[in-house]
Amino acid sequence: MISNNAKAHISLLSVNIIYGANYLIAKGLMPDKIGASALVFLRISGAGLLFLILKFFIREQVEKKDIPRLILCGLLGVATNQFFSMNGLSLTSPVDAAIIVTAMPIFTIIISYFILKEPLTLQRILGITIGGSGAVLLIYLGNSGLGTSSLKGNIFIGINALAFAFYLVIVKPMMTKYQPITVIVWTFLFGFVFMFPFCIGQLLATDFGSYETSNWISLFYVILGPTFLAYLLNMFALQYVKPTVSSSYIYVQPAVAMLLVAGITYFIVNSQYQGDITIAKLLCCVLIFTGVYLISTNGVLKKRRST
Predict the structure, then answer these.
(1) pTM for the full predicted model
(2) Cβ(190)–Cβ(70) below 8 Å
(3) Secondary structure tally for the chain: helices H, strands E
(4) Phi, psi at residue 59, to the nearest 5°?
(5) What 3-state DSSP class applies to 53?
């Protein structure tokens, strides 16, 4: 029998594999087949409807005092996260995007210190400094013109990571109080409200008549995979692990994205992604991973020393 804690870790690993593949799949749709904001509309509304169907099987009410927190969760974890994620990815390299979001555990640790009062030890401060340096350097490399990188796109991805880090911390109390599907439905409802005025225009201008079968498959993957399934698995995991543990799994994403980009550039001559994987970016990746490692092992090391 697999324990709930083990299931949580399996869920987090699956989530980040799904996200890692999404960088290339979503990038392949934008901007030729669909605009980034239009894709955000479809992701939030499509996954939101699926969550609503699941909610019909669960009768659970939320207290009025929790509505403001759920509104904030919808703003940060759905609307802001999705908007800057897709618009950033449409402007920059999928490799850059996957690496930059690995700074999310660093953001989560800092936010947890102020909101959840989690201790900020010397090792964590060192991890934040090293990892943060790698993230800032990589964002700056968007100016280099290598591959499909973009400074503006990298900044957008950074905002996306920061917003989702806030969301992971803010939503945690809701996970211990309500069932995951209840929290997801409310956050997606409020996320849809915030997103609607910014994305509806681009959706109406999208020419779905030009879609080929491969485009539809990619679109359904983006809606079902990194939106519906990933949010569901992430919410399940947050019932049993801390936000800092959840965010630390994010290092899987650049590994998956880099493998896919490497495969494309190897098999396709003159691929647009040639130049996306460079020594400088790999160095940034090492710095971020080192920082995340120091942060995630901090608690483990303290326990070992105390035994």
Answers:
(1) 0.81
(2) yes
(3) 15, 0
(4) -100, 105
(5) helix
Counting beta carbons within 10 angstroms of the beta carbon of residue 146, is it exposed (0 to 12), middle (13 to 18) or buried (19 or more)? middle
pLDDT digits (tens, 9 = 90+) for 236-284: 887 887 766 776 677 777 777 777 777 776 666 556 666 667 787 788 8
- Give the contacts of 88 (CB within 8 A, at least 6 positions apart): 97, 153, 154, 155, 156, 157, 159, 160
Tens digit of each residue's pLDDT (9 = 90 or more) over 178-237: 988 899 999 999 999 999 999 999 999 999 999 999 999 999 999 999 889 988 888 788
Q: 83 with 44: CB under 8 angstroms?
A: no
List, for residues 134-190, the tens digit of each pLDDT value: 878 877 776 665 567 788 898 999 999 999 889 988 988 898 889 888 999 999 999
Task: Transcribe 178-232 into DSSP letters.
Answer: S-HHHHHHHHHHHHHHHHHHHHHHHHHT--GGG--HHHHHHHHHHHIIIIIIHHH
Cβ burial of 122 (10 Å; 0-12, 13-18, 19+) is exposed
**Nearest in space to 36 (alpha carbons), one of 75, 89, 101, 94:** 89
Which of 301, 263, 236, 218 lies closest to 43 in space, CA to CA?
A: 218
Distances from the Cα of 210 to the Cαs of 26, 30, 201, 245, in angstroms? 17, 14, 18, 43
Residue 40 in tokens: 């955000």
Give residue for tokens 């917003």. Answer: 163
